């Protein structure tokens, strides 16, 4: 916060709403995973670094081609293929909407596979349901492990009378904030992207999960970019520019397509019944420029 404050103080102006929202979502738990990466009790380097990254470094296997640097991880399968894998938890969305939350989690993983390298093909989903050992009767929350696993009747009482679900019972369902995925559209998009990949029509691809365009374009355009939000295809009218910029989108990918490849690229998208729009360009300005004409 201090660094952000100092930055805008140097510019001698207050931040725009789109700047604040971009910074907020970038440092949100959804995007940054602060809890997962932070020190916890005796695990000083955090769960992620201690149990996942450290184990991978210690194994140091030659089959690991890409780890911790892309949307998914890739290992060598044989001389011709890599196996790409992505694991994701979706506990919070699934708590709000069990079916929709789990479904969008699965489709989000699929998007990460499509967004690996210049694109990989999703071939299989696996599902794991993890919980503590009930026989011990303890759930790890603190050093003394004093928190009991709650009995079903107590859980039911909390669910029925809890604040969040009370809103759901009143008609203001929190499940509306969970985006529902569309597997058919995702399959069309996946097929189209892979065909365009094999023809060498684009240079980079990533998905619009988490922070939406702000994440995908921000990650791909580290050297600079310019975007016109009025060109973005929308599901709903009346969205503010900052909402268009940071909203997570299901079954939507951002690709870097050289201008000379656009006609053929659009032709392939149309063939697969996939909508496409050109919203800006990457450059070497070192600046992130996001525009939205008045009245749009």
UniProtKB/TrEMBL annotation:
Keywords, comma-separated and alphabetical: ATP-binding, Cytoplasm, Ligase, Magnesium, Metal-binding, Nucleotide-binding, Purine biosynthesis
Residue ranges of domain PurM-like N-terminal in the record: 70-142
Molecular function via GO: ATP binding; metal ion binding; phosphoribosylformylglycinamidine synthase activity
One Pfam family this sequence matches: FGAR-AT_linker
Swiss-Prot/TrEMBL GO biological process terms: 'de novo' IMP biosynthetic process
Domain Phosphoribosylformylglycinamidine synthase linker residues, every copy: 1-33
Segments forming domain PurM-like C-terminal: 160-291
Protein name as catalogued: Phosphoribosylformylglycinamidine synthase subunit PurL
Native source species: Trichonephila clavata (Joro spider)
Lineage: Eukaryota, Metazoa, Ecdysozoa, Arthropoda, Chelicerata
């Amino acid at each position: 916060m201090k660094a952000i404050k100092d930055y805008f103080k140097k510019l001698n102006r207050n931040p725009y709403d789109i700047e604040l929202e971009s910074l907020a979502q970038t440092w949100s738990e959804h995007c940054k995973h602060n809890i997962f990466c932070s020190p916890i009790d005796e695990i000083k380097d955090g769960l992620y670094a201690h149990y996942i990254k450290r184990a991978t470094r210690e194994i140091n296997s030659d089959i690991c081609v890409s780890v911790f640097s892309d949307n998914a991880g890739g290992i060598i399968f044989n001389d011709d293929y890599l196996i790409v894998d992505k694991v994701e938890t979706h506990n919070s969305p699934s708590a709000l909407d069990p079916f929709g939350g789990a479904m969008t989690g699965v489709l989000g993983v699929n998007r990460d596979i499509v967004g690996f390298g210049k694109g990989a093909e999703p071939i299989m989903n696996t599902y794991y349901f993890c919980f503590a050992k009930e026989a011990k009767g303890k759930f790890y929350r603190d050093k003394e492990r004093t928190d009991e696993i709650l009995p079903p009747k107590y859980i039911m009482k909390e669910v029925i009378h809890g604040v969040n679900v009370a809103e759901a019972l009143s008609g203001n369902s929190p499940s509306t904030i969970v985006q529902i995925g569309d597997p058919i559209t995702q399959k069309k998009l996946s097929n189209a992207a892979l065909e365009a990949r094999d023809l060498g029509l684009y240079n980079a691809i990533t998905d619009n999960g988490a922070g939406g365009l702000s994440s995908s374009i921000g990650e791909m355009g580290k050297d600079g970019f310019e975007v016109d939000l009025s060109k973005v295809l929308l599901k709903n009218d009346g969205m503010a520019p900052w909402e268009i910029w940071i909203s997570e989108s299901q079954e939507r990918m951002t690709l870097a397509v050289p201008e000379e490849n656009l006609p053929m690229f659009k032709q392939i998208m149309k063939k697969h019944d996939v909508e496409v729009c050109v919203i800006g360009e990457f450059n070497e300005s070192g600046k992130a420029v996001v525009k939205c004409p008045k009245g749009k």
